[in-house]
Amino acid sequence: MIAAQVQAPLEAEVLEVQEPEIGPHEVLIEVKNAGICGTDLHIWHGSYALAKYPVVLGHEFSGVVAAVGREVKGFQVGERVTADPNLPCYSCIFCQRRQFNQCLNLEVLGVTRQGAFSRYVAAPESAVYPIGDLSFAEAALLEPLACVVWGLKQVQLQAGDTMLIFGAGPMGILMMQAVLRAGAASVVMVDKEAWRLNLARQLGATMTFAADALTPDVVHDLAPYGFDVVADATGVPKVIEQAFTYLRPGGKLWVFGVTSEGARVPFAPYEVFRKDLHIIGSFALNKTFYEAINLVHGGAIKLAPVISHILPLREFWQGLKVAEHDPARMKVQFAVDAT
């Protein structure tokens, strides 16, 4: 079968590999759509510590059940599905505390084991979810949305909260929609690209600002004492550093964007102490696929507007280039079965 495999940082090949064999409790999925995530770009550049090379990338995907193991009871061949790529051991101390995303033995499709930039991918039955009538392109965005849902659980957004989000890319747009449905009174979006801010307004943003237009005077007019929640969806250290200045006393900084492993951000500990600030990280997801699926099926979240490019998998390098550098990109996906 065809697969896009990263042999080592900045070394990749689209090649024929052996179809994965499935165990008695596993499901073989014929991949239809698979999205490029910022994590994939970090793995490509060698700046994601969890990655194991060589690896077939791809952890945001959807497809059709092609085969099931002999002990699988919940799925049948032909069913339309997606899967949680995070595969915990269920036995370490963090799994026992239901912190599955912090599992000491965590395996991740597309990071530590073969992912979905391939014709087929194998996943445990416990990680597979039906997608109903969602398009395959939309269903490949359920994993990013599940990450947002997990972050919301961590942040514990309160009804009536005001929020500032840096980054109106795919994750920022999904975050914005989710926090509005969770009860935020207002959501202000900041980005460098005017067309992204226009999309944010179309999907419900209260106000939008170009990155260089968010001056102290503007912020004071919007939120005289600061925002209840400030979220970074860029992964840019400088943005995270500046985010502290926009928080009200008792406010929450949501660190959501993925920085390089070695990135460092200076901050004033006294300010965190004096203002009762909360710094909240949210890594990946933690059994939040059902909530994500329910949000989409219930009409609360629109996924299709977030997809900008769909390329055949054989154009893997072009897809990476678009995802990293094209100013007109949002979510870039591969149609795996396209020629």
Please describe what this structure looks like.
The protein is an alpha/beta fold and 339 residues long. 27% of the residues lie in helices and 28% in strands. The protein has helices at 38-45, 93-96, 136-139, 142-155, 170-181, 194-202, 216-222, 237-243, 269-274, 289-297, 316-325; strands at 2-8, 11-16, 26-35, 55-56, 60-68, 80-83, 86-87, 107-108, 120-124, 128-130, 162-166, 186-191, 207-210, 227-232, 247-255, 278-281, 307-312, 331-335. The longest helix is centred in the middle third of the chain and has 14 residues, at 142-155.
Brief write-up:
The protein is α/β, with parallel strands linked by helices and 339 residues long.
CATH-derived architecture of the largest domain:
Alpha-Beta Complex
Total helices: the number is 11
For the record, the CATH class of the largest domain is: Alpha Beta
Strand content: 25-35%
Distance from N terminus to C terminus (CA atoms, Å) equals 13 Å
Low-confidence stretches: none
CATH superfamily of the largest domain: Medium-chain alcohol dehydrogenases, catalytic domain
| Fraction in helix | 25-40%
From the alpha carbons, calculate the radius of gyration and give it in angstroms. Answer: 20 Å
Structural class: alpha/beta
Mean pLDDT over the residues: 96
By DSSP, the count of extended strands is 18
Major sheet summary line: 7 strands, mixed
The global form is globular
Can you tell me the number of structural domains? 2
